[in-house]
Amino acid sequence: MNPQIINALKNRKRRIERRLAPKFWPPQDSPMFSARNIHYEVAERTRGLGCGGIGAMHLLAQQSGLAKAIDDTLHLLKVHKPYHESDHVLNIVSFRQT
Length: 98
Fold this sequence. Notes:
It is a single chain. The chain is mostly helical. It has one domain. 51% of the residues lie in helices and 0% in strands. Helix 3 (66-73) crosses helix 4 (85-97).
């Protein structure tokens, strides 16, 4: 077999193993998902997406205190590595809406 092909296959295998390796996250103090830097642009000839308002709804959940209320009352996870309960709940809700 060509040495270049062998090296390419080894590199691919190494990259796959690195992606699949377990990740060790430290406990997180705040939720991972944050609604920051959301910009909406409207042009003349565009169509809206069904999932276009997910960022706005997440921002509303944060500003209204819903995410904090979910984290304070719902206890599903023993350790927040890296996600909080509100991250899971709001992620499920956002996918149910699309």
